[in-house]
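Exercise 7.
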Amino acid sequence: METSTISATESIATQTRPAPRWAWLTATFFGAGHLHPGPGTWGSLAALALWSGGARFLPEPWRVPVALAVVAITLLVGIPAATLVARAKGDEDPSCVVIDEVSGQTLAFVAVPLHWNSLLAAFILFRAFDILKPPPIRQLERIPGGAGIMLDDIGAGAFALAVVQLLLHFGILK
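Solution. The predicted structure, written as tokens, is:
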């Protein structure tokens, strides 16, 4: 019997095998990644809807830790899910994988007031940084597997968070 091994440097695109259902549901954020046009924007909109709706029921002091916990959980579950779905699709970063947008977009909402203008600014800034990928975000995308899929969006979320916090600090947003 012959066995084969896959080297660590081999591209995800060459490693096709079926992904389990949990990975598809997680990676596509329960199907949001199958919406068109712009599945990534739909993933970000899902995060916006869930955060703006759900965070209102949290006491104010719990919002930041809960948002950070959501980011951590989606990152920890999203990396293996994104890896498995990318392998199944034979694509290094399939557009249907939007758990990365959910994670990064939620990071952009950390410590942002639940006012429409602040949430909209965080949404737009995250999408802009995610699409434009200024350095070092572009370099994070080059990390292999699900980690690269997820971490560039964490970078975009961190950039958006920083800009929104500056806008809040200087009174441009309230």
